Amino acid sequence: MYYLLSCFIGYILGSLPTAYILLKKARNIDITAAGSGNAGAMNSFEVSSSKIIGLLVLVIDALKGLLSVYLCLLIFPINFIYPALALFFAVFSHCFNPWLKFKGGRGLATAAGGAALLSPLILAMWCILWVIVYIFKKDILLANIAALILTFLLIILSVDFIYKFTFPAADSDGLLIMFSASFLSLIFIKHIDPLREIINKFKSPEKR
User: Fold this and answer.
1) Which of 44, 50, 92, 125 has the fewest Cβ atoms nearer than 10 Å?
2) Which candidate, 91, 10, 18, places its Cα nearest to that of 57?
3) Average pLDDT rounded to a whole number, residues 2-17
4) Where are the domains of the chain?
5) How far is residue 34's CA from residue 49's CA, in Å, rounded to a whole number?
6) What is the pLDDT of residues 123-144, one digit of tens each?
7) How many Cα atoms occupy the beta-carbon half-sphere of 21 within 13 Å?
């Protein structure tokens, strides 16, 4: 029952179609049919040319993850698995939104919001790696993908250390790795199309 409640909390909060609602109300734009079709902060900014709209989408999407974890921590204050499940399902329903015919965003903001409470060290690692890659490549999507992969590798290599910075403490190293792999893989799936575009860009000069 507790597992189902955690999943339900995350799924409902994560499914709030932030970008779709804001773009429809502010600009009468269907975000799922404009730009990249991604219902997230980056596409919202690019489609609307409004930093305010992009920032609002980013903040609200992050709050969906944060609230999912926070509510579960209020109900189950000493169990890692319940807020972890809530965060996973918040990211899942954001990425594959039931109100948008299972279209959605890429999940980074929602995951970051929840990780800020549940595992701030993992969030900090991802942010640092993202900044480093972006400085060298100046490509947001490439930085997203590289930071995801490198973060997971660092988690595996230093899980004993990261384990100490989960709140509440994860039940085991294995559970922490499984939790991290689950939501990082989910976000990575939403980056497959951008990854293909990046690979094609690298290949195109060789064809010439």
Assistant:
1) 50
2) 18
3) 96
4) 2-207
5) 12
6) 999 999 999 999 999 999 999 9
7) 10
